[in-house]
Amino acid sequence: MTGSRYACWVALPLLVAVWAIIALTVDTPLLPSPAEVAHAFWLAVQSGELPHHLLVTLRRVLISFALAMALGALLGVWMGRSRFANAVLDPLLVLFLNLPALVTIILLYVWFGLVEAAAVLAVVINKVPNVAVTVREGARSLDPKLEQMAQVYGFNRWQRVANVWLPQLFPYLMAATRGGLALIWKIVLVVELLGRSDGVGFQLHMAFQIFDVASILAYSLAFIAVVQLIELALLQPLERRASSWRNAGMQHA
Q: Where found in the cell (predicted)?
């Protein structure tokens, strides 16, 4: 257990070492060394550009994520609990699942212009079907015996949702959350690259125009680090805390 706990601290330094060796060997501006990327990162931080554009992108990610999770969860529960709703909406769900994100982004920019609302809506439309599909499976697997118990004890709608549905749906919501965060920030970068004048995606586009690979890697790694921090500091502790009752139940069984 101890060895596996610290194994993650071996892979990343090893990757950086291999990267440095290859960069030193090929000696080309198209593959800057870790030191050059760190220098570009520091210059972007000192100028204030990196914090500004990073916060702009994070704001878009959080807004899009919250809207997509809320709408997708409601849609998934509705389709999972209603055969009629599932029969009517399933073809649309399949359609939007297979619609490329790039097409959605371009169409919304053409229809509504290069505005913030179109950017956020494009991300939400691309993520809602994924959340709905995941949560729908959870809603289908709700234990009918717990439903009967709720009726016997006279649970109202809110009590049933909070005490019966949510604990059972939690693993599916966490799966949608993790997958959603990974997908949404990638789509946000494409949205910014195509039609916004700020954000990490816009900066990557500007760096690409002059083949500034060091800046591309600096902005990319900074954003990846922030998303990974959210995963480690928020999502994983939330999952452990919310699923602790399952572990306790297994220990007492």
A: Cell membrane
